[in-house]
Amino acid sequence: MHRDTHHRRAIVVMLLAVGVFALMDAGLKLLVPHYPPLQIAALRGAAAVPFVALWVLPRATVRGLLRVRWPLHLLRGALSTAMMGSFVFALDTMPLATAYTVFFIGPLLVAGLSAPLLGERPSRRSWVAIAVGLAGVLVVLRPTGEGLFTAAGAAMLVAAACYAFSAITVRVLSRSDGTGAMVWWLTVLLTLAAGAIAWPAWVPIASEHVPVIIGVGAAGAAGQWAMTRAFALGPTATVAALEYTALAWGVGLDLALWHVWPDLATLLGALVIVGSGLMLLRR
Fold first, then answer.
1. pLDDT of 253 over the 70 cut
2. Extended strands (E) in 75-168
3. Which candidate, 173, 145, 147, 5, places its Cα nearest to that of 80?
4. What pLDDT is recorded for position 148?
C-alpha cells in the first residue's frame, strides 16, 4: 500500500513537471522574436539560478559542490548550451507540438548510445524500437526531406542529440556526484557559457519581457525539482513514459497562444515515436 502511494505521487509529480516545462517552453517561444537564441538560453539559466539556489544550497555542502568530476560537468554544460540554443532557434518557426515530437527522439538515442558509451546491451527488440522511432521522425519532417533539410528541423535534431549525450553524462556522473551538484552546475554553466557567446550581440531587455523571463526561470527550476522528485518516488519506466504527455501540452499551448493545429504528418509521426518509446521503456 505504501509503495502504491509513492507510485501515485510519482505520477502526479511527473505530470506536474511536464506541464511546468511546457509552460517554460511557451515562454521561450514568446521571447524568440525579440532576442537571439543563445541570449534566451542565458536568460533562462540566469533567471533559474536564484530558484535553484533556494533548492540546492541549503541541502548541499561546499565539499559536495566543489569536489565533483569537472570534465564531465563542463561537457554537460557545453551540451546543454548547444541543446538550449538549438531548441530555441527551432522554436522560431516550429510549433511546440512539432518541436516536442522531434525532440522525443532523444530518449531513443540515449538507448542507442548506451551500448557503445556505457557498455550496455540493448536487446534486438530495443533496436527495432529505436529504428521505428527514427522512422517516425522522418514522417514528422516529411518523407521527401523538406522538413529535415530546413534549419529548424536540423536544429531540433541537434537539440535531441545533445540531450541524449547529456543524459549519458548524467548516468556516469550519478555514480559519484549528487543530484544537487548536477542541477546547480548545469544551471550556472548554461548561464555563463550561453551568456559569454551571446554577449557581443546582446539585445537590451525590454521591461515588458521581464515577467516572462522570471516565469521561465521559475518554471525551469520547479520543473527540474518535480522531475527529480518523481524519479525518486516511482519506477523509472513509469515516470519516463509520462514525458510523452508534453505533446498534449504542446498542442494545447499552440492552439491557445498561436492558434496553430498540428498537421497530419506531425500526428502520425508522434504516434510512431511515442509507440516506439513506450515499447523501449517496456523492454
1. yes
2. none
3. 173
4. 55
